[in-house]
Specification:
The protein is an all-alpha fold. The protein has eleven helices and two strands. The protein has helices at 9-40, 47-64, 68-93, 103-125, 151-173, 175-185, 187-192, 197-219, 229-244, 249-269, 276-288; strands at residues 141-144, 147-150.
Length: 298
């Protein structure tokens, strides 16, 4: 086993930054899943499918607006709202009737929904690989730590913390955020004081799915947009939520950092088995803290 003798401090630093940028995508998607789990107690396996729809919607909108910088930014802004619209229809037509069911039934239901959404994506966009070009301002690289670092990855490192702060302010400083937290603890009490809990839950579900769509739109320029991209992300998101702590946004962030950084370091140290590193980190965390690194906030 050769870990390579050409590994330098500069290479480690750049790989850490790449891992952190990957962690930002994981955090955005996982925070949405964690929010839905925390408020609605719904293990939404279809969350990854909504992430995939966000990526495909970004591709379509980018082309519809002529590509280039304008097409990219409009697609980035609008595609999460497309996903939110799909989520609202699904929530009002299906999910709102199932919140009181057992978790196993909800798990099976969302798994079936994942399969349905996957087939719908195939019907609408086909099975071909798609790609989005980054705008001119985010093309190329910057010299960091003596190596080249992609500008788009730096953009992700800025967007991730902004989403974290925005989600924190929403859940802790806004009226509807506080109501959502209260409804997660005692739905009947919130309903008794005259608040329509059904629409509070709908808003919470749509917000979580909006974040999935945002993650899909952000990742689209970095990977091939194709069928099946939902499978890997949903596995990673559930693991991140588990090790971070159910419903804990900062736990989702911490879990995403662990997952992204260990995966990037695995590519540097042992590329053939890089995929093993983040899952090994998950095992270590769960052995050390079976209930997650941070406790559930709801």
């Amino acid at each position: 086993m050769d870990f390579g003798q050409s590994i330098t401090l500069s290479a480690v630093g750049v790989h850490l930054l790449v891992g952190l940028s990957r962690a930002m995508i994981l955090f955005i998607v996982s925070s949405g899943l964690s929010f839905v789990l925390g408020v609605l107690r719904v293990p939404n396996v279809a969350h990854g499918s909504l992430y995939m729809i966000g990526a495909f919607a970004a591709f379509t909108l980018n082309n519809a607006f002529g590509g280039g910088s304008a097409g990219f930014w409009l697609a980035l802004v609008l595609s999460p709202f497309v996903v939110a619209g799909v989520a609202l229809v699904a929530e009002r037509a299906l999910f709102c009737h199932l919140y009181q069911r057992e978790h196993l039934m909800l798990l099976l239901f969302t798994f079936a929904l994942m399969l349905i959404l996957g087939d719908l994506v195939k019907m609408v966009w086909g099975a071909d690989y798609r790609s989005i070009t980054t705008p001119e301002v985010l093309e190329g690289s910057l010299p960091i730590l003596g190596s080249s670092f992609p500008k788009y990855n730096l953009f992700l490192l800025i967007v991730g913390p902004l989403v974290a702060v925005g989600l924190y302010l929403f859940t802790n400083k806004t009226k509807i955020g506080k109501i959502a937290r209260a409804a997660a603890v005692d739905r009947d009490m919130v309903d008794a004081i005259g608040i329509n809990v059904s629409w509070v839950f709908a808003f919470a579900f749509v917000l979580g799915c909006f974040l999935a769509g945002l993650g899909g739109a952000l990742v689209a320029p970095t990977i091939s947009v194709t069928l099946g991209m939902d499978h890997d992300i949903i596995i990673e998101a559930f693991l991140i939520v588990t090790i971070g702590g159910l419903g804990n946004m900062w736990g989702a962030l911490l879990g995403s950092l662990i997952f992204g950084v260990t995966q990037s370091l695995g590519v540097l140290l042992w590329p053939q088995f890089a995929i093993v590193f983040p899952y090994l980190a998950v095992v270590i965390v769960l052995v050390w803290r079976p209930t997650g690194m941070l406790k559930s906030v709801w």
